[in-house]
Amino acid sequence: MKKTTAKHAGKLQSPQFPLCFVRISRKNIRLLYCCIPVPAPGRSCPNAAFDASFFDDLRRISFLFQRLAPAMFRKRPSHRIITGLDIGTTKVCAIIGKADEDGKLTILGMGSYPSKGLRRGEITEISPTVDAINRATQRAIEVANVHIDDIYVGIAGGHILSVNQEACVDIRRPARGIDEKDRTRAVEKAAATLHLDRNQTLIHKVVQEFQINEGQPTHNPIGLSGSSLKAHVHLVAGCEDQLQNIIRCVKKAGFRQSPHIVLQSLASSMSVLTSHEQELGALLIDIGGGTTDLAYFANGTVRWTGEVAMGGDMITRDIMEVLGCRLNDAENVKKKLGCALPDTVDRDATFPLPQLHDPSELSTHKEHTLAEIIECRLEEIFEMALAQVTEAGFKDR
Q1: I need a surface site. Which of 42, 185, 269, 301 has the fewest CB within 10 A?
Q2: pLDDT of 61 higher than 80
Q3: Largest CA distance in the chain
Q4: 107 domain-assigned
Q5: Number of domains the chain contains
Q6: Are 298 and 223 found together in one domain?
């Protein structure tokens, strides 16, 4: 794999990971897989209730209403109401939908609110997090005018552990073929091979494939004959304290039921990647506020997940420090004029910016300088992502 840098951010594409791309321009922010319109300077968003950053965050929880919905509601009433909750480093976003019997979702309401109780995807303060969850969900409920049945929350952070495990079991009645009990035994045995610390708990058991008598892999062994069944499983575990912090915050926000926890990178992948793309091979990079989530898919299933402890907030802070402005002004100029390709920016183009110590005074800066700041930080993020992919052994795939 060629070295990936922000200089190739216009379209990061290689034979190994044909779907890895990031584009940041003045008119659009296209982070890997989504394109969110950004209002031009001086113009308001078409919907005054939600700005561009709000919709950018909502993409992170859209998985609840695309890929997971059919499985979640296959046997549930058509009126089932669910809520997707993204407790992010910069803001909390909530979206409410109603699913029919086929899992098709109708969006009923959404809301967001700035969060101050997280750092790099992990909850560090309860009260501000509870307040942000409450305000975001209440805004969504006011629009939807429904009662929430289920809550699904994405999780990320440096405490997440993801590994591939395998285990083999004997088939008790080979003549009758492999049944669901055999399948479950193989998966559970593979999960049991992961030795967790006392403060860790298992979040996901994602089946990759099965092998019958050490033969060719199959995704569905039910009904096939064989004397042994091996399960290959991707296991995701997390810190029990962090999971309890999420559950505690959701309940303190007024919800009696415990939320369902979903790994953010897996959730995003399910929403974004088609079955064909997962079969072909794809590396998904989801740049959030505090962290960047990674997930590699091949042969129709997840092969590896990871995380870079750095996100868009670092870009904002870089702008603040280099240009000498307030944090909110740096965030605004990043959204309005942000570009990761300095060579495409007019070197003579400038923009005004309130000064740090005296906001009434405006300083003038070049858009080309802004692009260089963004390029530098994105280059570091991509290099760190590449290093993790290389260490995991997927660089040349």
Answers
A1: 42
A2: no
A3: 83
A4: no
A5: 2
A6: no
End-of-domain residue from the set 237, 254, 285: 237
Q: Tokens 């008598």 sit at which residue? A: 213
Measured in degrees and rounded to the nearest 5, phi and psi for residue 326 equal -75, 160
End-to-end Cα spacing for the chain = 8
Residue 112 lies in a domain: no
- Closest by Cα among 169, 144, 143, 159 to 201: 159
Do residues 83 and 72 lie in contact, with contact meaning Cβ atoms separated by under 8 Å?
A: no
The domain that holds 285 is classified in CATH as 3.30.420.40
**pLDDT of 359 strictly over 60:** yes
Q: Report yes or no on 386 lying in a domain.
A: yes
Separation of alpha carbons 255 and 276, rounded Å:
38
Q: How far is CA 352 from CA 323, 333, 364, 376, in A?
A: 11, 10, 5, 22
Range of the domain at 333: 1-33+274-397
Please check whether residues 217 and 333 belong to one and the same domain: no
Is 230 within the bounds of a domain? yes
Q: Which residues have CB under 8 Å from 345's CB, separation 6+?
A: 339, 367, 368, 370, 371
Average pLDDT value over all residues in the chain: 82
Question: How much is the pTM?
Answer: 0.73
Bridge-based pairing state of the strands 150-155 and 81-87: parallel
Same domain, 229 and 286: no
